[in-house]
Amino acid sequence: MNGTINAPSIEYAQLFPVLVVFAAAIAGVLVEAFAPRHLRKSIHVPLTLLTLAGAFIATVVTALGGLPATPVAMGAIAVDGPSLFIWGVILFLAFISTLLINDDEQFVAQAAAVPGSADEEDAVRSGFAQTEVYPLLLFAVGGMLLFPAANDLLMMFVALEVMSLPLYLLCGLARRRRLLSQEASVKYFLLGAFSSAFFLYGMALLYGYAGSVDLKAIGQALATVSNQETLLLVGMGMIGVGLLFKIGAAPFQAWKPDVYQGAPTAVTALMASTVLVAAFGAVLRVFWVALGNLDWDWRPVMWGVAILTMIAGAILAITQTDIKRMLAYSSIAHTGFLLTGVVATGAAEQNSKALSALLFYLAAYGFTTIGAFAVVTMVRDAGGEAGHLSRWAGLGKRAPLLAGVFAFFLLAFAGIPLTSGFFGKYAVFTAAVGGGALPLVVVGAVSSAIAAFFYVRVIVLMFFNEPAADGPSIAAPTTATSAVVALAAAVTVVLGVFPQPVLTLADQAASVLFIR
Amino acid sequence: MPWLSTLMAVPVLGAVGVSLVKSDRLAKQVALAVSLAVLALTLLMTLQFDPSLGASKETRFQFAEVYEWIPRFGVHYGVGVDGIALVLIALSAVLVPIVILASWHDADGSGAEAPPKRSVKTYFALLLVLEAMMIGVFAATDVFLFYVFFEAMLIPMYFMIGSYGGVQRSYAAVKFLLYSLFGGLLMLVAVIALYVIGDKGTFMFPELVGVIQDPTTQKWLFLGFFIAFAVKAPLWPFHTWLPDAAAQAPAGAAVLLVGVLDKVGTYGMLRFCLELFPEASKFFTPLVIVLAVVGIVYGAIVAIGQTDMKRLIAYTSISHFGFIALGVFAMTTDAGAGATLYMVNHGFSTGALFLIAGFLIYRRGSGRIADYGGVQKVAPLMAGTFLIAGLSGLSLPGLSSFVSEFMVLIGTYERHPVPAIIATSGVVLAAVYILWMYQRTMTGPTAESVKALPDLNLREKWVVGPLVAAIIALGFFPSPALDVINPAVDHALSNVHINPPAVAEKKGAGQ
């Protein structure tokens, strides 16, 4: 022991997008502490938007500079093609989610006030706003960037927590229906903590098996370590539970409808798009990089999970009467479709096709989802957003344009050609067929048909039913909300008609797969 | 000149124009003008079509345009027409202006007991978008592009039924969409598998012919395509959506639905099932023929029992689609050409029936047969044209359907005598349902409620006139159409490797 400690080498340039997001998040906390109340929001909003935009540009610059071949930060983080693509998507989606979050109607005036109490009325009257939303958002986004890029399980766990903890809080901050929101927050927190524990325990077991938490080392240990199958399989199962919980795959999907419904819709939009993207990145990295050679063991289970997720999402959605719950189940069904791509492994070329298809799907789905939730924020009645489906009847007459755009998003979810959803589904299904998962694709097609039923039901409600006499009004949208809807619609159209540029980008990102 | 792209672009631009103009009246006029322009372009294109080129593989699809669309998936914007596609495009181009003229007041809520006023501009814009997609689906020479149109064309029709239809419109629209989507998604799986297993890296139809050699694979892929087409056509037992959709749709939309959209199913069987999966087609021929014959008889018998005019016409169509499918899977040139011609003739005669029934319903506010009686005394023109269309539907010699039905039966008899004989009973049953409907609605003492029924006005005469003219013309001179169709059908059947030896001579003798 000579006592010298070598400082770890950090590649600041490649990690710049992550670092800048965290730095801005900390700056945001300082703003909360020192800036006067009336100034906070006007500092937070530009700070958040500029940070996300800057991080996005930094990501693009890094990507243009060529894909790095080795992990950075002492092997803890892999800034490879898939990571960069996912970062770009997350930052872009987070940017437009921020535009939605920038809406006072969404968030509670003072989270600590008991719902319905005099305190709350005071807070509302004095125009308080819970501006901590913005730094929380940035911390969550930072976690999302790290999560899919983490190259060892420990870093992944830290990222998971950094991503999740702010989201638990954000879920409880809805301005209306506060009890529902707080219930969602607690539920999400408890179940999330439970799944984190699974992840952590699985990690410990894998460490016991491989002697390392490094994904590459675990992958190599598969070939060398023997007689430790129990540790390996149980560890893999537990890590799988933790990750599948985050993407909301059945049978770990139960939190999604409750949380999506209770959370402020802007936060739901953020979760439904970016968290899914980040978590899928992590799923792929763990199962393809660390456990890639174990695919004979996990593939049958993943098949089952994918089938269960698709069917459960599609069938349970039919019985929903709340628009946000319905979109939550729709998100579960889409998770199932995405999982068909996860099992489509094979030779390197096949893997890169599947990966590229998944990346495209995630991007396409993320934009459409944010657009759909943005429309949900605009349909309001006296009690806030009009969540119950019956309130949407006849919306096509009151607001033909808004209803038309929403119908278009629903058709995209249903995967009708000439929308981005179709090519996403097509790409993933093609990869799955190439990977020998034809039966899975048949199940996918059947559950798409089932899912089409509830998407179409909303269209029927909006266009073919007479409006209720006391139906909801359409809130005059803020410029930001209109911009979000317009952008999401534009992306959904463009990716549905000319998907090639984004496909090429996804192909390039996936060309060398994950670095190890 | 890029004929086919122009044919698609004009209605799309027209739809944009229609939705931008201020007044409803102007919107209708623009829509009519645009559809007439499409018709004129189609006629010009048809004049330049050379049927003799159909025999060669290279020149089979004329007016071809191929551009890369999504290289990553091997998808092209590939269009081109052979004789089969050409006559179906011509059918669409003729029907759309007629339907627009017939639908003049469908959306403005002016008819007796009509649904409340809806957006007129949207209705006509949807019609034009649908026209572009109908042309696209027949013109596509890229399997993927075909699929895209196949699915996308559901959406405008869905809104036309759901927003502008009868009392049960939303139920009918959803049923229509879900049935079609379900079939379409099965086809999507088959399309993907065709691409992956075929491993050609392209979706261009001519290059995909013959790539699937393995018989088992062929069978599965055949089923994926066939079920989608059988739902679309529709064949028994996939038909239950059609009576609902056709009865609830406004008459004009019903014409396009039954007259053109459903033809995509039978067209797909002829073009894709037979050519891409010849062995599987032969394997499944007995099954398809049984379905077709059951459909012919079942559709006819159920039609007899209907009490609603539009439902009755819809069931007659199920019977007729049985004939068309029978002709396609008989795999003889006579039957194939007959089936193709039948697709066109059925579009005209059923179109006329639906539209005249629509005029009656617009006036009286009811589709029930029992609400009518003795119409021919107060509205002789309406009754007369209805009779002509009906007689064509029951294949009276001299009217168009006779030629095609006869060809289908002759062609089928060569190879499958027993089904052909059973199918012939459909002709007899057709006489029952048509004439009985005519008797109940048009003859006898004039019902109180129709005493003041006005006859066809000038606009309606312009609607019915061309259809009746087409029915009679194709009944007496089918040969121009057959000259276009025959080489294409020959080519389509050549991949099935069944040589129809006797047919060539007979064709010569027939002319």
Order of strands, widest sheet of chain B: 1-2
Share of helix of chain A, binned: over 70%
Mean pLDDT of chain A: 89
- How many helices of chain B? 21
Radius of gyration of chain B: 21 Å
- Supply the helix-strand structural class of chain A: mainly alpha
How much helix is in the residues of chain B? over 70%
The profile of the biggest β sheet of chain B is: 2 strands, antiparallel
Determine the mean pLDDT of chain B. Answer: 87
Gyration radius of chain A, rounded: 22 Å
Terminal Cα span of chain B? 34 Å
Task: Output the keywords.
heterodimer, A: 516 residues, mainly alpha, 20 helices, 73% helix, 1% strand, B: mainly alpha, 3% strand, globular, disordered C terminus
Short précis:
Chain A has 516 residues and is mainly α.
Task: Kindly describe this structure.
The complex is a heterodimer of chains A (516) and B (511). Chain A is mainly alpha-helical. Helices cover 73% and strands 1% of the residues of chain A. Chain A has helices at residues 12-34, 37-64, 81-101, 118-125, 133-149, 153-171, 178-210, 215-224, 229-247, 255-262, 265-290, 295-318, 323-342, 348-378, 395-398, 400-414, 420-434, 438-464, 479-497, 500-510; strands at residues 379-381, 384-385, 473-474. Chain A has a three-stranded antiparallel β-sheet with strand order 2-1-3. In chain A, a hairpin with a 2-residue loop joins strand 1 and strand 2. Chain B has 511 residues and is mainly alpha-helical. Chain B has one domain (3-510). Chain B has a two-stranded antiparallel ribbon. In chain B, helix 7 (169-198) crosses helix 10 (241-248). Classes of the chains: A mainly alpha (516), B mainly alpha (511). The A-B interface holds A 400, 411, 414, 416-418, 422-423, 426-427, 429-430, 433-434, 438, 441-442, 445-446, 448-449, 452-453, 456-457, 460, 463-465, 499-500, 503-504, 507 and B 69-73, 119, 147-149, 151-152, 154-155, 158-159, 162-163, 169-170, 173-174, 177-178, 181-182, 185-186, 188-189, 192-193, 195-196.
